[in-house]
Write a structure and sequence with these properties.
This protein has 18 helices and 14 strands. By secondary structure, it is α/β, with parallel strands linked by helices. Helix 5 packs parallel to helix 6. The relative contact order is 0.13.
Length: about 500
């Protein structure tokens, strides 16, 4: 009995780990019944290394789910040190060509499948209703529910055509939040009517399109449950998603160690409550990635069953859904196939560029000022971004400065560096970055010919400036911006972050 409960408990966990190879403890737990493993940037060095890693895991259990947080765009794990070959959701939404979105998702899926990854925590189906949202932003296809819905469907179809299961997130919608759930517990005081007309639209479409998995959001929606966040809410997960919307696939939590859950309930109690509410798999490992965490959660689940706080039937049902998805991925596996056509990604990024105001091609050395901003945990600080490195390759002699946020105020220094040169200022989400906005204002007062490249949400009026909007900071978006600045196609650019 104890051994069987242990296996069931392991089956519903999706833990992470540190390193480029599978540690012994992880392999041992996979052999003992662990149903899934989650990968992050720390686990990826190259496609060859990743393929070897997943092959090692499958020697212990061929039907294991190997999951990754790979959205393309700003949130990339496959290319965490170079920047993504695929533009993110906002860029695809700006183009609004569902065939293109499907092609991008297919290409990304091929990249994953050839490395042995069969479960992607993507796409993001949130409707970005709040411009000040600190965690969604360019990860969303946009603010129009119908646009988000049709691109979510196209993404799911493209990804799953490669044998990689799509996980639509963050149910029932993280787009109208002003708090990052990695750090706190957001609350969305929207009526059921508003949620139905806005946030739920893409999820309903994804369910109808056959999405294999849905990820829960760590947010409180009093319209459905005034006490518990969605991840722990039976009315939301079982009542709304299962019974009302008819979803029969896998429900997985967002990272259970995120502040919204860990700081309120603790990860052990949060895990038990999530399973009781209707969750089938518990994601953990973005931060906590050791064997002790796996054992803590396994034992918490087993104890909860023995004490009657979690029924064995509910746990067995969750484990069965994990096994069902694993069987689907094994049946549709495309391991070792051809990689995605990255030319499609660059073409998509080019189509997403928008230019406001007059633009004279940069043909002589310029000065590029990249104003950094605080990235959220989902995006991370490892992945390079920007335009300067590519413009410097295209126009030798171009200088690039990226001052820390504490030295944004050194306007005179940057003006002096740009004397006699075209000045290009690169920003991300300028509307939310007060320090960058203040510095830009000081620069523009002296250099009104400054060209601004916005690699985040292009909110607000360009105020007479020439502004290039890329709708994301993926590597291909940086290349597309450099091409727009120079007025020519740039071949052979070296990815930022490579030696």
């Amino acid at each position: 009995m104890s051994q069987e409960l242990d296996r069931l408990a392991l089956a519903v966990l999706q833990p992470g780990f540190a390193g480029l190879t599978a540690p012994d403890w992880l392999r041992r737990h996979v052999a003992d019944g662990l149903g899934s493993v989650g990968l992050f940037g720390r686990n990826v060095q190259s496609p060859e290394q990743l393929a070897a890693l997943t092959a090692t895991l499958r020697k212990e259990r061929d039907d294991i789910l190997v999951a990754i947080d790979e959205e393309g765009g700003d949130v990339t794990r496959l290319e965490v040190r170079q920047g993504s070959s695929w533009p993110g959701n906002l860029a695809l939404g700006a183009v609004d060509d569902t065939d293109l979105t499907r092609a991008v998702a297919t290409g990304l899926g091929r990249d994953l499948a050839r490395c042995g990854v069969n479960f992607d925590w993507a796409p993001d189906a949130d409707v970005n209703a709040n411009p000040d949202n600190p965690v969604i932003g360019v990860r969303s296809f946009g603010a129009d529910p119908q646009l988000v819905a049709r691109h979510t469907v196209a993404y799911v179809e493209g990804l799953q055509a490669t044998g990689v299961a799509a996980c639509v997130k963050h149910f029932p919608g993280h787009g109208d939040t002003a708090v990052d759930s990695h750090l706190g517990l957001p609350r969305v005081d929207a009526s059921r009517e508003l949620l139905a007309a806005r946030d739920l639209v893409p999820f309903r479409a994804a369910v109808a399109a056959g999405a294999k998995a849905v990820m829960s959001a760590h947010i409180v929606l009093p319209a459905y449950d005034a006490e518990y966040p969605a991840t722990l809410s039976r009315p939301i997960l079982t009542g709304l998603l299962r019974e009302e919307m008819g979803f029969q696939g896998l429900i997985v939590t967002d990272g259970i160690e995120m502040g919204a859950i860990a700081d309120t309930y603790g990860i052990a109690d949060g895990t038990v409550r999530a399973l009781a509410a209707g969750v089938d798999a518990v994601c953990v490992g973005g931060g906590l990635c050791d064997e002790g965490t796996v054992l803590l959660l396994r034992d918490a689940i087993v104890t909860a069953v023995r004490e009657g706080r979690l029924s064995e039937e509910r746990l067995a049902d969750a484990a069965a859904r994990v096994a069902e998805l694993a069987a689907w991925t094994r049946e549709h596996a495309n391991r070792g196939g051809e990689p995605g056509d990255h030319a499609v990604g660059l073409a998509a990024a080019r189509r997403a560029v928008r230019v406001e105001g007059p633009l004279t091609p940069v043909t002589a050395p310029a000065h590029v000022l990249e104003l950094t901003s605080q990235t959220n945990i989902a995006v991370g600080d490892e992945t390079p971004w920007g335009v300067g490195a590519y413009l410097a390759q295209a126009v030798p002699g171009t200088t690039v400065a990226r001052p820390g946020m504490t030295t944004f105020g050194l306007v005179d220094t940057q003006l002096a560096a740009a004397d006699g040169r075209q000045l290009v200022v690169v920003v991300r989400d300028l509307h939310r970055n007060v320090a960058a906005a203040d510095m830009l204002a000081g620069i523009v007062a002296v250099r009104p010919d400054t060209v601004v490249v916005e690699m985040g949400l292009p909110y607000g009026d360009a105020q007479g400036l020439t502004r290039i909007a890329t709708h994301g900071a993926a590597r291909v978006c940086g290349i597309a911006a450099a091409e727009t600045l120079t007025g020519r196609v740039l071949d052979g650019l070296i990815p930022v972050g490579t030696e």
